């Protein structure tokens, strides 16, 4: 297998058409894990994705998109991961970690921020293994919490 990570532009319709179904499948798994299907990217349509102002990196197996990470740069010291999606057919194979490694090399900022559903154990484990520490839990719906993480390098 030949994997490649590259920057993508989701304002391009063809690119967005590749990302959207992967995003929907990935967030459907998270919705199941956390017992809540009100996750905004799960409901996002093509126009919504194409209006994204985030920076994006995508991981490909040949021409097939297996995962992507979206991030923002709110200030000179911070990178905030806003989305990390891996197609469930390719889950638990290191694609999310590879995307985060690539992002770390591309944007070696001292502060990293990310959040995920508290009951999303695979994502929580991934962030904790990368040096992120839990900073707070926020209730977003009855019985549903989101955990925020921060990493200082």
Automatic annotation (TrEMBL):
Residues 3-153 form the N-acetyltransferase domain. Keywords: Acyltransferase, Transferase. One of its GO terms (molecular function) is acyltransferase activity, transferring groups other than amino-acyl groups. InterPro entries: Acyl_CoA_acyltransferase, Bact_Acetyltransf, GNAT_dom. It comes from the Bacteria. Transmembrane segments: none annotated. This is Acetyltransferase (GNAT) family protein. It comes from Kribbella voronezhensis.
